[in-house]
Amino acid sequence: MTSVVQRLRPALPDLREAPAAFLRTHAERLGQVTPWRVGREVLAVLAILTLDVWPGWFASNGRLSGWTLIALGVGYVTIFLTRLLFPALALLIATWVVFSADHGGVVLVLMLSYAAGYRIAPWQRSLLTAVLALALHMFAWGVSTPGLSGPFGQFVMLTVYGMVVALPFLVGRYAAQRNALVAALQEREERVVRERRMVSRQVRLRERNRIAQDMHDSLGHRLSLISVHAGALALDSGLGERQREAVQVLRSAALTAMEELRGVIGVLRRDEEPEEDQVRRTTVGGTDNRTVDAIDELVDGARRAGVRVSLVRGGQAVPLPAKVSHAAYRIAQEGLTNANKHAPGASVQVTVKYEPDALVVEVRNNPPRAKLPSGGGFGLIGLGERVRLAGGMLHVGELPTGGFRIAAVLPYEDTAAASDEPSDEEQPEPAKPTGIRKWAGVGSIVLAGIVVLVVVGGYTWIGSQPVTKVVSEELYDSVSVGQSQAEVMARLPGGAEPPLGDITSDAAPEPAGAECEYRVADVQTYSSRATKIVRFCFANGTLVEKKTHLQGM
């Protein structure tokens, strides 16, 4: 039992830290103000002034005017804005002010009830606020409508409370709980995405280390053998000048490949992502020689190897990010390599053109003299990924004349590519609510449904009851003072009374020594905002008075 009581007891804040926490919370809310929220507040204030203050739908004494109208409007707006800091206090004040007076205010109470349900988080505090609002409503109802009593009057009082206070309060609480649930699910989904990215990153790093080890053990060893044998062959005195130059080119290419392999292995073994100016470069004296400016040297090397290649440059040179410059060099390198491999003997043209908004690099070759089998295309796949990381676009395809073309458009600015974002296959499924969160807010909406069912069912039952105890105008006019009590009572209808509570209220004092019968008039006027009651008073077996009065609602 003790543990149950402790769970039901509301958590009291630390009184020393409560003011600072209160100011900090509302300062954060003030920093989140948007034009939409300001506009929403302005519309709510206009609705209150229009529907409650003027003309005041439920005012019984006509329109308010002058300073009274201004004071009422200022007071309503002040109570409405108080909800931003003290929603429970604003609701309680509005409940008493509105229901204890004759003027309107239902719109104000509706808005404050919704705001209180939305803003009061602990359910214990919400329950306490609802109970206090009911108590104030009951006292205010007894002050403002003393004539509407009895079971029907109590039912009407509870109906007004249920529809004006309890129902919007429960709807606001439901909306707050659903919003909190959505926020929690979004936070959980973001956390799952971050964890999935971390796992993917670890997997990529392990795969990088494995690839780097395989390349070091196999490819590095074989390139070293090629370099050593080429160096030994260059020392052979039986070689001619032309053969010696070819061997020297072979040895230089092997040494360059080894340097690039070391750079690739270094990048693969990095625990962090490679910097853009360190990706796959070969340094000479500490400077990068794999840039767009080094394409001239690349073309010269291809010419010395026997490739018929021309270089065309155009436009005004623009400083490029290292990632873009390196991608341009790799496009030219891959294009020359593919042309020499798949179209040996064909002429090749390399174009580097600085357009107004982008760099265009193109390598095209004429048809080969003999049709050769195509390769696997892994180099072009890697090239496409490199261009994408640089923020550009790559086009690869055959020419109408039978040749082949590789072209790329690269931006002048450094654009970040989402290379490390998880793919569609890696996206986690949205988190599904489980346990108590699955039913968050259901209790509030169920209670709201019960309130609506009770109100609708109650009024449906009342409306289905026959009402016969009413007096028509003809009957009232046909009865005259001086008739016997038995004759008049025989003509008055009996049966069920209308559910109006105490119909004797607001009547004039009864004649001394007389016994009076009260009935509801058959003809009622809505504009009078009251119920017409007729009264027949008898003394010594004779009708001594017949009178009508209005019972205030």
Automatic annotation (TrEMBL):
Alphabetically sorted, this entry's keywords are:
ATP-binding, Kinase, Membrane, Nucleotide-binding, Phosphoprotein, Transferase, Transmembrane, Transmembrane helix, Two-component regulatory system
E.C. code: 2.7.13.3
Q: What domain of life does the native source organism fall in? A: Bacteria
What protein name does the entry list?
Answer: histidine kinase
Region Disordered, as annotated, extends over: 416-435
Q: What SUPFAM superfamilies does this protein's entry cite?
A: ATPase domain of HSP90 chaperone/DNA topoisomerase II/histidine kinase
Q: What GO CC annotations are associated with the protein? A: membrane
Q: Which InterPro entries match?
A: HATPase_C_sf, Sensor_HK_TwoCompSys, Sig_transdc_His_kin_sub3_dim/P
Q: Which GO terms describe its molecular function?
A: ATP binding; phosphorelay sensor kinase activity; protein dimerization activity
The record's catalysed reaction(s) read: ATP + protein L-histidine = ADP + protein N-phospho-L-histidine
Domain (Signal transduction histidine kinase subgroup 3 dimerisation and phosphoacceptor) ranges: 207-272
Q: Which residues cross the membrane?
A: 66-86, 92-114, 126-143, 155-176, 439-462
